[in-house]
Automatic annotation (TrEMBL):
Domain of life: Bacteria
Catalytic activity as recorded in UniProt: a (3S)-3-hydroxyacyl-CoA + NAD(+) = a 3-oxoacyl-CoA + NADH + H(+)
SUPFAM superfamilies: 6-phosphogluconate dehydrogenase C-terminal domain-like, ClpP/crotonase, NAD(P)-binding Rossmann-fold domains
Record-given protein name: Uncharacterized protein
Family membership noted in the UniProt record: In the central section; belongs to the 3-hydroxyacyl-CoA dehydrogenase family.
Length: 704
């Protein structure tokens, strides 16, 4: 709903008051807004306009559910056209317009603010301002790519648009995105005062004397700027980021023309993106999937919400330190347990260095002293008795974990959740150490814990609703994004991602060069190729991972695979990895080249496989194993698997995740290609029964 209210002296407040928790702009809202603006501009008694919201935030942007439903570019254009016309009239209507930003303004909300003659923000620490559309495979469609560079220049606007940055009020003021910050209770008064004092309401870019701040796109500096920007984009995304490409094109070609011509160019590109698979996949996974996960919709409804205040973390290694740090940063008291007081104290020292680094980067919530002061290193289990949750993060060895879990269970109150940060060991195998198996579950964090949002929550057969709910409450407090899966070897993430590194080893055994394997993955959208990843993991550890994932030796993912034999040969030749300078690549400082003894070590001859086939093998093996986890009941919803694959190991976001990739190809075409790969490279590519049924019935994993 959009209403008007008289603020007195001829100033009218336009108030956005949607039905949901935040205000969004759909087609009906845009049409209502356009009609209201026509009405206000036509009334002689209206001297000026103030835009604001009755919610905590101003406007969150466009209606993404509506955008997900568009089928053609024309559908998208129909949504934004009323909005574009309305805000252009605001700029040129001859009446001063102020955006009174009572909270966050993002996407279309901030584009509306850019069209106002002044932007005044309430001093709200939680508020954020920016144009983050690129993170969802979209670009601004309300003139943002044209007004922002005309306001602050191409050099300042481009990174904000390409990175989708969300600025705090003070940073937005410093960058020139807003004009003033006032106390919340003064917001409407200040906005009204500016309207009444304004005598020449016009945008800079509508003046004949206007020149783009900094440099023009066709100037020598501008040409060099765009040349470098394209090079950086290609290096980062290898052609897989359609939205960033469109933004650069529109910035270049739009800002050398009039504002109206530039907006017309933006609209065409926005509409094309909105109708694309990439945007729909990203919105579904990274917006809908993430929002559902963070809203804890999988949390058992019959359990009262808890607020954990004290956590025990057992193990001061990399993962334990990360878990302790994020817990302390969330305001919890942390007992950090290790085998000696000295080792536990050194772990705290390492956490202090992380906190100092984050403080320097502006990422720390609170002071270093306050955060680190909430961490108490100890070697005594007697100190953890009052813990609200225990997280075990010791070495990935079942006997060691069972020993630690038994000691923790003996020290804490009955009914306290006990979580194992294991990446692959079935939780049921660890539950035998506990007197009450209903209290244990898995919390699989990803490294580095302070940066990675995903936590894979593993529910064993005996895990109670209460324990699951309280563990999710803990994850909510430390601001993580949970995906709940059922117990099994490797759960979801390790089970699927292991097929990625395994297939890289199979490709090496087939004589494919490391560079081709890595390039195929990077060009498909992975941030890092699997061979480079294997060198980071190290051959000895990779050998252990493959052994731990063997299970009963009859896994479908292992049919025809020689991955274990391949990594064993590399380890036997004392190839370790990047850390030692001698993995599959040989490293010399910042340079590397394939090890010249690789073919002799593996007994291979040069392969004739092309990049497309290598890419298919790397992508298909992951999606096929993901489908098997769905058949086995490890995951129950494809969107959970998509979210876990994108956030957990960087499956290409533009593909939407391991299940979304199947939808992109089509079940029938995917099954056909899987049969071809199985005939050529082994039974691990045989399509599962679920996929064959989907192909027969022409079904998808996702309806939208």
């Amino acid at each position: 709903m959009i209403t008007r209210k008289n603020l007195g002296d001829g100033v009218v407040l336009v108030l956005f008051s949607g039905d949901g928790p935040v205000n969004t702009l759909g087609r009906a809202d845009n049409e209502r807004f356009a009609a209201l603006i026509d009405e206000l501009l036509a009334e002689p008694s209206v001297k000026g306009i103030v835009l604001s919201s009755d919610k905590r935030d101003f406007l969150a942007g466009g209606d993404l559910d509506e955008l997900r439903a568009v089928q053609t570019p024309a559908d998208a254009i129909a949504i934004v056209t009323p909005f574009l016309k309305a805000i252009r009239k605001l700029e040129t209507g001859g009446k001063p317009v102020v955006a009174a930003l009572n909270g966050t303004a993002l996407g279309g909300g901030f584009e509306l603010a850019l069209a106002c003659h002044r932007r005044i923000a309430a001093d709200q620490p939680s508020a954020r301002f920016g144009l983050p559309e690129v993170t969802l495979g979209l670009m601004p469609g309300g003139g943002g790519t044209q007004r922002l560079p005309r306001l602050i220049g191409l050099a300042a606007a481009t990174p904000l648009l390409l990175e989708g940055k969300r600025l705090k009020p003070a940073d937005a003021l410093a960058a020139g995105l807003i004009d003033a910050i006032v106390q919340p209770e003064r917001l409407l008064d200040e906005a009204k005062a500016w309207v009444l004092a304004s005598s020449n309401p016009a945008q800079l870019w509508d003046m004949k004397s206007f020149r783009l701040p900094g440099f023009a796109p066709q100037s020598p500096e501008g040409r060099q700027f765009f040349l470098a920007s394209w090079a950086r984009l290609h290096k980062r995304s290898a052609g897989c980021d359609l939205a960033s490409e469109a933004i650069l094109q529109v910035l270049h070609h739009g800002t050398e023309r009039s504002i109206d011509a530039g907006i017309a160019i933006e609209t065409r590109h926005f509409a094309r993106l909105a109708a694309s698979f990439d945007a729909k996949a990203k919105i579904r996974t990274l917006f809908v999937g993430t929002a559902n996960a963070r809203a804890m919709k999988m949390r058992p409804k019959n359990v009262p919400v808890s607020k954990p205040a004290r956590v025990a973390v057992i193990g001061g290694g990399v993962m334990g330190r990360g878990i302790a740090y994020v817990s302390a940063m969330a305001g919890m008291e942390v007992n950090l347990v290790d085998i000696s007081a000295d080792i536990a104290a050194k772990a705290k020292d390492a956490i202090t260095r992380i906190a100092e680094r984050d403080h320097e980067r502006g990422h720390l919530r609170g002071t270093v002293a306050d955060v680190v002061g909430r961490i108490y290193p100890t070697m005594s289990y007697a100190d953890i008795g009052q813990s609200d949750i225990v997280v075990e993060a010791v070495f990935e060895r079942p006997d060691l974990k069972r020993d630690v879990l038994a000691k923790a269970a003996a020290a804490i109150r009955p009914g306290t959740p006990i979580a194992s940060n294991t990446s692959s060991i079935p939780i049921t195998n660890l539950a035998s150490a506990l007197p009450d198996p209903s209290c244990i579950l898995g919390l699989h964090f990803f490294s580095p814990v302070e940066r990675m949002q995903l936590v894979e929550v593993i529910r064993a057969g005996a895990t109670s609703d209460e324990i699951l709910a309280r563990a999710l409450d803990f994850l909510k407090r430390i601001d993580k994004t949970p995906v709940v899966v059922n117990d099994g070897l490797g759960f979801f993430t390790s089970r699927v991602v292991t097929t990625y590194s395994s297939e890289a080893m199979n490709l090496l055994a087939d004589g494919v060069t490391p560079q081709l394997i890595d390039n195929a993955a990077v060009n498909a959208g992975f941030a890092m190729g699997p061979i480079s990843l294997c060198d980071l993991v190290t051959m000895p550890l990779l050998k252990d991972i493959f052994a731990s994932m063997r299970g009963n030796g009859r896994r479908a993912a292992d049919r025809g695979s020689v991955a274990r034999e391949t990594v064993a040969k590399l380890a036997a030749d004392e190839r370790v990895g990047k850390a030692k300078g001698n993995g599959i690549y040989t490293y010399n400082g910042e340079t590397r080249e394939p090890w010249d003894g690789l073919s002799a070590c593996l007994g291979t001859k040069p392969s004739s496989l092309d990049e497309a086939t290598v890419r298919d093998r790397l992508l298909f093996t992951q999606s096929l194993e993901a489908i098997r986890t769905l058949e086995d009941g490890v995951v129950t919803r494809p969107i959970d698997g998509d979210l876990a694959s994108v956030l957990g190991w960087g499956f290409p976001a533009h593909l939407g995740g391991v299940f979304s990739f199947v939808d992109r190809v089509g079940a029938s075409a995917f099954a056909h290609r899987a049969h071809e790969l199985a005939d050529l490279f082994g039974g691990r590519y045989e399509p599962p029964a679920m996929l064959l049924e989907m192909a027969r019935d022409n079904r998808k994993f996702h309806d939208v």
